Amino acid sequence: MKSLPVIDLRWPPADVAQAVAQACRAHGFFYLVGHGVDEHLGQRLEALSHAFFALPEAVKQRYAMALGGRAWRGWFPLGGELTSGRPDWKEGLYLGTELGDEHPRVRAGEPLHGRNLIPGDDVLPGFRQAIFDYMAAVAALGHRVLQAVALSLDLPADYFERRYTADPLILFRIFQYPSRDIPDGMDVRHGVGEHTDYGLLTLLRQDDVGGLQVRVGDEWTEAPPLPGSFVCNIGDMLDRMTGGLYRSTPHRVTLNRSGRHRLSFPLFFDPNFDAHIQPIRAPQVDDRAQRWDGASVHAFEGRYGDYVLAKVGKVFPDLRSQVL
């Protein structure tokens, strides 16, 4: 129970579905191998991301989230993101599906939709294209994984795509966790504090430094890097759909003491912004007492977008007051 399972997508679909069902009931987390995503995409993005974070802060400020408006895209500095009101010890770049100004959602001013703030080839050659290539490949994997999740619940393989993810909300992050002392007076305890993810699936590429921990029962379990794999976990909305059968599991990232900067690349594969989440099965328990935030995902009503905006607004409270 303490080690996370490894699922090979080259297995027969029925075997994959059975393994997904077991993993989602026991852990809410699993490793994915045999996924077909070109390793060179991740390696190139990793190298270019190191180069991005090494840029002078004055250059990175050109891509600050405050300049991204309602799209909520761009760079934030070390300690600029909060979990449960406490700063995380990381810096990062928020990204998503690239939508031009003429797109109906952008014209309507819908939050979390718009253009990305990414250095062009004049600043960091190839970075922009590497991001888009990687996002496209991992989003395609997200569709495949949700097919396996549907089969694991004895549903048609296209259940989620027909209802929620024909036009998914794709949120992508590039995070750097520096191996650096924390200044005196900063209330920092983790690279990322304990939390659950918001949507359906998270597909995470880790570098080889490590630091991810998953709460299995009452204990924190290491999720060390496995070369060539993705770490996949389910989010609050899949927990809600399944009535708690599949749990969105708390996880965190430890402070980086390795002597090397750590990179991680989570892609959140979420329902369409306007989707109203319908239960597949009725809630079996009231899990508020066991959840890290004391909230129940089963009590939520409304659009998925309303849920995710409320969550992201707590992560960047200063930006929230400007954008929403």
Provide the descriptors you would attach to this structure in a database record.
324 residues, alpha+beta, Jelly Rolls, four-stranded antiparallel beta sheet, 9 helices
Fold topology:
Elements: E1 6-8, H1 13-26, E2 29-33, H2 39-53, H3 57-60, E3 74-76, E4 82-83, E5 86-87, E6 91-96, H4 104-107, H5 127-152, H6 159-165, E7 169-177, E8 192-195, E9 201-206, E10 212-216, E11 219-222, E12 230-234, H7 236-241, E13 251-253, E14 262-270, H8 304-315, H9 317-323
Parallel strand pairs: 1-2
Antiparallel strand pairs: 2-12, 3-6, 4-5, 6-7, 7-14, 8-13, 9-12, 9-14, 10-11, 10-13
Would you write up a description of this structure?
By secondary structure, the protein is an alpha+beta fold. It has one domain: Sandwich (Jelly Rolls). It is 29% helix and 20% strand. It is built from 9 helices and 14 strands. The strands form 3 sheets. The chain has an 8-stranded mixed β-sheet with strand order 1-2-12-9-14-7-6-3. Strand 4 and strand 5 (86-87) form a beta hairpin. The longest helix is centred in the middle third of the chain and has 26 residues, at 127-152. The protein is globular. It starts with 5 loop residues before the first strand and ends with a helix. The model has no long low-confidence stretch (mean pLDDT 92).
